[in-house]
Amino acid sequence: MKKYNFNAGPSILPEFTIQETVKAIQNLNGSGLSLMEISHRSKDFEAILNEAVSLFKELLNIPEGYSVLFLGGGASMQFCMVPYNLLNTKAAYLNTGTWASKALKEAKLFGEVVEVASSKDANFSYIPKNYEVPADADYLHITTNNTIFGTELHTDLDVNVPLVADMSSDILSRPMDVSKYALIYGGAQKNLGPAGVTFVIVRNDILGKVKRAIPSMLNYQLHIDNGSMYNTPPCVPIFACLQTLKWIKNLGGVSELYKINKKKAELLYNEIDSNPLFKGTAAKEDRSIMNVCFVMEDKYKALEDEFMEFAKGKGMVGIKGHRSVGGFRASIYNAMPVEGIEALVAAMQEFAKLKA
Ligand SMILES: *Cc1c(COP(=O)(O)O)cnc(C)c1O
Fold this sequence. Notes:
By secondary structure, the chain is of the alpha/beta class.
């Protein structure tokens, strides 16, 4: 049976990425050696890393003056690296979910943290608007896509202080204006590659302003100076990311991908809104085009486990909602084909015919 992978992360990757990575693991560029056993200082790997950086810059139109890094430690390491490198006295955080809360908690180790707004009162089902950012904050930290709660900021904010964004689960899903951000980071394992590598896009002039000493491995400037090669980088995950970037370019770039992503999300949300059994959990204007959260209407609540089994029988994988929301979550990242959404929608319709 064909499987449709709706896992939240690690998650679906393009078939191209997987095939090319398998080939390189067996024999890189006909060298007779595996990607896993070559030196990260070799010409072959240097070319891989350089191409990944330049393709990232090309696909997101990253302006001059920014660096692209591939680091270890996951997005969670960035929760501490960001304040370590950028927080002098005060930082502002927009609290839109579990990951945003975790980022905020780490920042408190480094200085005063102002929570400018939070949607915790409504189980993070919306993105707060109309809040004030202290003009003397070193930066404002946002989470553009809330993977667990299925809400997303659909525009690039204009703010009066440097803007830092966790884009783990929506990077490359839509065209964006990188020039509005001082720093963007994310774990690769949602939209880009396998777990084990973290991308960081940083405006160089934001660095070097904090007074504290920074340990080498947590110092952005040192990683920039060494081209992500201060120590051994995660070579295989970086290679896989490069394949995904190539796949996006072949598809016509991020704006083409965005058209497909919007269509996919619309298809699924339309079904959720029109199917008598289901309802969405996120505020409509803030609905994510990457993570679609939905539950069963109260009077059908008891059928959730049955639908899970029903959908599983039709090839759906990973649609169980996160425990903090319940119900279902379909993660429909860049690599999810329209066909996967159509299969899920068909399963929802068929189940409704049986039960409603
Ligand atoms: C998954 C996720 C994280 C955590 O990523 P790790 O690489 O596991 O540390 C952080 N932020 C967001 C928005 C995520 O989706």
